[in-house]
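Project standup — Tuesday

K.O.: blocked on the structure for the chain from last sprint. Re-posting the sequence here as requested.
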Amino acid sequence: MKIQELAEKTGLSAHTIRFYEKEGLFDSRHVRRDENYYRNYSDEVIERLKLIKKFQGVGCSLSELKEVLQDHDTNTRTNQQVMEWISQKIGEIERKRDEYDQMLDTLHFMLEYRMALENDPQKAHSMLTVRHTE
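H.V.: unblocked you, prediction finished:
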């Protein structure tokens, strides 16, 4: 299939698909060049792109993605190594969740403060006083 058809089937842009190819995330099973040098993608590339999206969804960097896909293709890592990697990703995501929770707490306070400022300036002042003593 041509790149435009693949883009339509996956919801990715042609630019993104070309980028993944340039970065070495596909191999000869996924893309070939026709005699006219047009890219011709196999049906297997759709599953590959779904896998890429999954791993990006859990916060994989491009270099991690390359490692994961290489392992997926060659099965070079031991089960223990894969479990360690998964545990590391869980830790990273939990740290990010804690950061987001702190940001949300701050934004909720800011909104509550601004609403109090409009309706009850004394309450707003006391909110700031309490916030500074915490």
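K.O.: great, moving the ticket to review. Residues 3-62 form a domain with the Multidrug-efflux Transporter Regulator; Chain: A; Domain 2 fold (CATH 1.10.1660.10). The radius of gyration is 24 Å.
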